């Protein structure tokens, strides 16, 4: 049964990308365990505004676990202590009366802090722009059923395509690697006949862009898979490595 | 002055779009390079339009308020996308999709637009498959379909419960490719704050850089609005937190007509409200109604015992359950359209049969489906939705029925557009949910994705050329024109005014007030008395906003409270227009239900002799009543009937 709890929230405050940040601790009383983690932060912000202080800046939008906007590092875990969910799907029933909850932004060279808990993830867009697509224009396309695709391949492609681009994998990785993100897109398209035509070019271009933007290498620790809100598997990284090597050998 | 000219092409219904394309003006490749187009928004409509226009050779500037185009709220659409492929061989056709959409919209949409939508629906599926969208497939490798409300065929294509995500990522990938090829320039974390008009034509926008807080000017030969709907007027809705109606409202204030503002869709299957602190409502996909059965207790004392926690839903015997949709609508059962299902839930709850601790909930039960199909099959179909429900409510829907209640989900109303998707301001276009065009008074499930992508991939890229063909000799615009100066000064003054109120209430506090007024008086059941009361109450909310608002921080920096305040100022005015329009339309149709106008069985009662028109509102200035013009809806090809989902 959900109860009301009293907690302390220890939040990272940082005024801008080049400013020095620090933790501030705010007590909150009578928080319903039925409320979501972000509703708890809404209550905190309402309180701060009423006290004439600046609210805590954090990214959020759909609050249904699909847009990939929310990005909080809670008690040492991207998206908090629960598995297979985003920050917006985390509920206060995961916490107990008297807890102090530490909230930080994603910390990675690839994602500079903009303000407080908000980071800049445009690097992911740039990696996508380097090759995360099938090069078809609008129109002049054959019938959707012209090429049958084995159901299992379509399902595996869908497993990989479920990535929401939130960046938890990078935040979880001690190397700040974006391999899980990149491999999810490379896998999805390599598994489908429509994407196979450009598979070599795609793998090389996306990996090169990832390296250029300062993301680290993968050392197979698997933290990304554990923290991924969509349970994207690291077998995708193995597939990316195969795709990349095949492309390189073909050169 | 009435500027309504819907520009419907001549000829038989099935030939109108072909005739249009055969005779419209085109822009040759060399001239396309000379023309700039601003696209505001990167959802299904915006991203598909920006990518397609870029590929064609136009210079496209594409804006979004999130950190990436992939975050737009189209991403949250769950169930599917309709198309008239007839792959299941169950009798579907372009005509049937057209007919179902017109009927679903309660005969308040344009025949020609809806026919075109049905016509291009098949190309959308082809396009998405070519992009690598992993739609669900049968073991033979061909595409699978499922059923949605308001149809007796299976024409909905889907990618698990994440169809919107996969379609948006497809459009986003096309957009990313266009950015890579320098066909599109992307502006993320930018919000349009005004439209710039020069010599009567849309020529640019003022946008606020949300990171620096600076106002910036952008010029173009045409402006396309793809910023979605205004459902967040109600504060609590299934829309994303930043979804807003401000871009559309700026266009309205600059002379674009706003059509059918009162037509908002209330989705029947949302997770019920659980407390005052709540910020957002969560949708449970309509696809659940394929296998879930909706019921409340037959006996009022059982309902009361459940509300008090003395009985559990599983304690209620089969014969004591009222499957009210199956009872009232035998032909469509649990798959009646959204407006019908929502009103039926409200009717049962208002009569005292509601469940949950608030009494504002009904059951959506999978026990029968689990018995019939097995838990594995149910899990494969709806696993992610069940998990989402369990995380939020802390109940296991495999063991106990889900609780659901209607919530605001989509707005059929929007910026008025003609057949070419151009507004009453030359050079200003509106696509996707931001326009009013295709869904009439009620949108069918899986048709929003269809319309967004139809507009962006296959309609606007043609029709915008008919306008731009006359613009090829107009040079690239500079942004130092006096019209840009004035627009920027006006919005800067507005921001100063907001920052200087220095009152005591947060934006959310006032937004909740607005939401309560809207839900209570402009919600699922409306009457003249309530609407008049709403109009009075909205004046108070507006006054409260402009005298008691508090925005911390300053304007030339990242300031989320200021962003929200600018949007709320517009939501309040949108709410006023919705109430006026709802009061004016003295009939019930689709999502607009006037309590005074219902059949003896409690169904929506249209008055075609008086209200068969689109209401088009023209802005007259601050605190002046808007003027309404009527676009007559003449049905040439189908006969209007009382909607019947019973037999």
In short:
Chain A is α+β, with helices and mostly antiparallel strands. Chain A has 2 domains: 4-115, Beta-grasp domain (Ubiquitin-like (UB roll)); 122-250, Fumarate Reductase Iron-sulfur Protein, Chain B, domain 2 (Orthogonal Bundle), CATH 1.10.1060. Chain A is built from 9 helices and 7 strands, in the order E-E-H-E-E-E-E-E-H-H-H-H-H-H-H-H.
Secondary-structure element order of chain A, N to C: EEHEEEEEHHHHHHHH
What is the beta-strand fraction of chain A? Answer: 5-15%
As a percent range, the share of helical residues of chain B equals 25-40%
Structural class given helices, strands, pairing of chain B? alpha+beta
CATH architecture of one domain in chain B, please? Answer: Alpha-Beta Complex
Which strand order spans the largest sheet of chain A, edge to edge or round the barrel? Answer: 2-1-5-3-4
How many helices of chain A?
Answer: 9
Strand content of chain B: 5-15%
Largest interface, C-beta within 8 A: A-B, 78 and 81 residues
CATH class of the largest domain in chain A: Mainly Alpha
Task: Calculate the terminal CA-CA distance of chain B, rounded to whole Å.
Answer: 46 Å
Give the tally of β-strands of chain B: 19
* Residue windows where pLDDT falls under 50 for at least 5 positions of chain A: none
> How many H/I helical runs of chain B?
18
Radius of gyration of chain A: 20 Å
């Amino acid at each position: 049964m959900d109860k009301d709890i009293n907690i302390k929230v220890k939040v990272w405050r940082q005024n801008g990308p080049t400013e020095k940040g620090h933790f501030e601790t705010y007590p909150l009383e009578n928080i319903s365990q039925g409320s979501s983690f972000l509703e708890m932060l809404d209550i905190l912000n309402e309180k701060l505004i009423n006290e004439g202080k600046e609210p805590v800046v954090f990214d959020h939008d759909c609050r249904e676990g699909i847009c990939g906007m929310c990005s909080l590092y809670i008690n040492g875990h991207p998206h908090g202590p629960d598995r297979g969910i985003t920050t917006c799907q985390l509920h206060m029933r995961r916490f107990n009366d008297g807890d102090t909850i530490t909230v930080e932004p994603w910390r990675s060279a690839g994602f500079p802090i903009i303000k407080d808990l908000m980071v800049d993830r445009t690097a992911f867009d740039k990696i996508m722009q380097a090759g995360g697509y099938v090069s078809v224009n609008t129109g002049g396309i054959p019938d959707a059923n012209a090429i049958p695709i084995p159901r299992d391949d379509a399902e595996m492609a869908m497993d990989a395509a479920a990535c929401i681009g939130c960046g938890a994998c990078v935040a979880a990785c001690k190397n700040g690697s974006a391999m899980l993100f990149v491999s999810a897109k490379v896998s999805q398209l390599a598994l489908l006949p429509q994407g196979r035509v450009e598979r070599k070019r795609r793998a090389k271009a996306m990996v090169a862009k990832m390296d250029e933007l300062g993301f680290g290498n993968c050392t197979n620790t698997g933290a990304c898979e554990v923290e991924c809100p969509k349970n994207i598997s690291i077998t995708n990284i193995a597939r990316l490595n195969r795709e990349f090597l095949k492309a390189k050998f073909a050169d | 002055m009435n500027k309504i000219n819907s520009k419907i092409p001549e000829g038989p219904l099935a030939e109108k779009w072909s005739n249009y394309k055969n005779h419209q003006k085109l822009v040759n490749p060399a001239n396309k390079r000379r023309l700039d187009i601003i696209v505001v928004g990167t959802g299904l409509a915006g991203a598909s339009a920006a990518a397609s226009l870029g590929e064609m050779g136009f210079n496209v500037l594409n804006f979004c308020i999130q950190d990436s185009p992939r975050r737009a709220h189209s991403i949250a659409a769950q169930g599917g996308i309709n198309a008239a492929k007839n792959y299941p061989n169950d009798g579907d056709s372009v005509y049937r999709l057209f007919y179902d959409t017109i009927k679903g919209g309660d005969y308040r949409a344009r025949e020609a637009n809806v026919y075109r939508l049905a016509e291009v629906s098949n190309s959308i599926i082809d396009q998405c498959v070519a992009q690598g969208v992993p739609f669900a497939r049968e073991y033979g490798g061909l595409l699978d379909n499922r059923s949605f409300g308001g149809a007796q065929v299976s024409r909905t294509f889907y990618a698990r419960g994440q169809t919107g995500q996969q379609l948006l990522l497809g459009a986003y990938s096309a957009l990313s490719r266009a950015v890579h090829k320098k066909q599109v320039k992307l502006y993320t974390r930018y919000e349009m704050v005004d439209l710039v008009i020069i010599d009567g034509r849309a020529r640019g926008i003022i946008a606020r850089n949300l990171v620096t807080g600076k106002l910036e000017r952008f010029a173009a030969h045409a402006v396309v609005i793809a910023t979605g709907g205004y459902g967040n007027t109600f504060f609590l809705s299934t829309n994303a937190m930043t979804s807003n109606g401000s871009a559309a409202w700026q266009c309205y204030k600059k002379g674009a007509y706003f059509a059918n503002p009162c037509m908002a869709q209330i989705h029947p299957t949302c997770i019920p409200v659980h407390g005052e602190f709540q910020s957002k409502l969560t949708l449970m996909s309509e696809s659940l109604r394929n296998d879930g059965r909706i019921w409340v207790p037959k006996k009022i004392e059982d309902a009361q015992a459940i509300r008090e926690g003395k009985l559990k839903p599983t304690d209620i015997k089969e014969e004591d359950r009222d499957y009210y949709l199956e009872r009232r609508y035998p032909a469509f059962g649990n798959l009646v359209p959204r407006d019908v299902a929502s009103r039926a839930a409200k009717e049962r709850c208002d009569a005292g049969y509601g469940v949950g601790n608030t009494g504002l909930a009904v059951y959506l039960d999978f026990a029968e489906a689990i018995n019939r199909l097995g838990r594995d099959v149910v899990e494969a179909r709806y696993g992610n939705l069940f998990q989402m429900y369990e995380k939020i409510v802390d109940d296991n829907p495999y063991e106990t029925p889900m609780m659901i209640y209607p919530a605001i989900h989509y707005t059929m109303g929007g910026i008025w557009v003609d057949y070419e998707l151009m507004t009453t301001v030359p050079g200003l276009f509106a696509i996707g949910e931001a326009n009013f065009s295709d869904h009439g008074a009620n949108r069918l499930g899986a048709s929003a994705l269809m319309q967004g992508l139809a507009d962006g991939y296959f309609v606007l890229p043609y029709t915008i050329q008919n306008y731009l063909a006359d613009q090829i000799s107009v040079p690239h615009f500079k942004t130092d024109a006096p019209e840009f100066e004035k627009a920027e000064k006006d919005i800067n003054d507005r921001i100063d005014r907001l920052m200087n109120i220095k009152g005591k209430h947060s934006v959310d506090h006032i937004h909740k007030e607005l939401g309560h007024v809207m839900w209570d008086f402009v919600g699922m059941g409306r009457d003249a008395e309530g609407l008049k009361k709403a109009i009075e109450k909205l004046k108070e909310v507006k006054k409260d906003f402009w005298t008691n608002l508090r925005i911390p921080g300053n304007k030339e920096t990242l300031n989320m409270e200021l962003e929200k305040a600018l949007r709320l100022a517009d939501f309040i005015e949108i709410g006023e227009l919705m109430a006026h329009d709802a009061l004016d339309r003295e009939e019930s149709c689709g999502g607009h239900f006037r309590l005074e106008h219902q059949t003896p069985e409690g169904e929506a009662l249209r008055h075609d002799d008086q209200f068969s028109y689109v209401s088009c509102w023209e802005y007259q200035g601050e605190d002046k009543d808007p003027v309404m013009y009527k676009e007559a809806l003449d049905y040439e090809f189908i006969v209007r009937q009382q909607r019947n989902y019973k037999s």
